[in-house]
Amino acid sequence: MDTTVMIEKHPQIKDLMAEQPIVWRNPDYGESAELPLTRADIFDAVVRWERFAPFLAVAFPETAAMNGVIESPLLKLQHMQPAWEAINHQSLAGQLYLKADSQLPISGSIKSRGGIYEVLKFAEQVAMTHTDLTYMDDYSVLATPKYHDLFAQYGVIVASTGNLALSVGIMAATFGFKTTVYMSHDARQWKKDKLRANGVTVEELNTDFSSVIPVARAAAAKDPHTHFVDDEGSRDLFLGYAVAGVRLQHQLKTQGIPLDDQHPVVVYLPAGVGGSPSGVAFGLKMIMGDAIYPVFCEPTHVPSVTLGMMTKLNEKIAVQDIGLDGLTAADGLAVSRPSRLAGKIMRTLLLGTATFEDNELYKYLTKLLDTEQVMVEPSAAAGFTAIAPITNQFPELAGKNVTHIVWATGGDMMPESERQLDYDLGRKLLLAVEGE
Ligand SMILES: *Cc1c(COP(=O)(O)O)cnc(C)c1O
User: Fold this and answer.
1) Which of 206, 233, 260 is the last residue of a domain?
2) Based on CB atoms within 10 Å of each CB, which residue in 164, 293, 406, 416 is the most buried?
3) Where is the Tryptophan synthase beta chain-like PALP domain positioned along the sequence (predicted)?
């Protein structure tokens, strides 16, 4: 690809190539567009989750207290807000919240939305085809040996850097599906161990993640009884994430958080392949409309969705095409090529993106633990890095009473030793800037 021509058209590509943090304003934001998915698709997913709630409450006892509903709390960050202001040397107009998907059951990450939903949908389809199950049955029956034996004749395959593997792998194996997860060499050992302990076959490939997906896809294509969860373009994954729009709308209301023209809500989502943040953002916009503003956050070394949307080449361009190495310490964000759905559906729905340097993540995760006793994984702290650049560069948000929601995408399953390493790194970095 000729980068000189690209820079002429999109001058910010020069900053991307120099690994400079940027804010990209989406020029098509707010235009009308024909979308391939609708509100009706979201509500179809909402009722499928409801049908499965009795099953989930049985299969995962930790969800029983919530009656089998898999949802995370929206936490007000009263003590983190002044810490954020100190790090950024500026005051924050409005309120700061954390959407703690790090605490979602089963995978401890946002992947419990899309990944689990796609497996539920596949299980329902198999059960409906081969048994007398009806939509009004109590789905806890799906946890019985009769169904386990049926599901054992089918397979589920997914390629993942980690968290999607945990959600799809644990869910599929619990149903009884023959479950195989393809992972790249850099995937964390503890994630592989946990999957194997749950009866999942883990195939490790000595390549980077983008090359793992075609291998997994090819393996699934060989067996008509095997379902492939396609992180680069699955509609079901996307809709599983989109249900968050319905859930967050309710949380805003019950927590008395206003949402209107004078009280905008900005939601900061870390993006890897772009599937989970796009699914969530789509749900938020379809359910709540104009006053909610989704923003994506990406590492300066892996701005894959930013590059895809800016050039409108979407999945046809990878960060290596502009000379970047695609490396980041943030698990889940080291994806060089965006999904086929993300850029297309986000074209008119995404306010913009902001890129950040990896070190920033650690400062915020350490402060978050210090001030609020909430631990997240590095990628899940990405939202904190985008608040200042976005509020400073979008005058339409100035002077308004903004609610800022950082979407904390993962962390609860991290072993203590990893948490300690991340926390200590953040301490060291803070000490260097604050002399704390
Ligand atoms: C998967 C993941 C993301 C990014 O999601 P994509 O769908 O790849 O864009 C961000 N943070 C965490 C913790 C994740 O697991």
Assistant:
1) 233
2) 406
3) 75-402
Q: Over range 223-245, report the average pLDDT.
A: 96
Q: What is the pLDDT of residues 381-392, one digit of tens each?
A: 999 999 999 999
Q: What is the pLDDT of residue 138?
A: 98
Whole-number pLDDT of residue 436: 52
Q: What is the mean pLDDT of residues 105-111?
A: 96
Interior CA angle at 58 toward 52 and 60, to 5°?
90
Residue at 53 is within a domain: no
Domain limits for position 265:
3-37+66-107+238-434
Report yes or no on 46 lying in a domain: no
CATH of the domain at 223: 3.40.50.1100
When the pLDDT of each residue in the chain is averaged and rounded to a whole number, the result is 95
Measured in angstroms, how far is the CA atom of residue 99 from the centroid of ligand 1? 14
Say if residue 186's pLDDT is above 80.
Answer: no
Instruction: Give distance in angstroms: CA of 279 to centre of ligand 1.
Output: 11
Amino acid at site 142: L
Residue 52 lies in a domain: no
The protein residue whose alpha carbon is closest to atom 1 in ligand 1 is: 332
Question: Is the entire prediction scored with pTM above 0.90?
Answer: yes
- Ligand 1: list residues with CB < 6 Å: 109-111, 163, 270-277, 332-333, 335, 377, 379-380, 409-410
Please give the tally of structural domains in the chain: 2
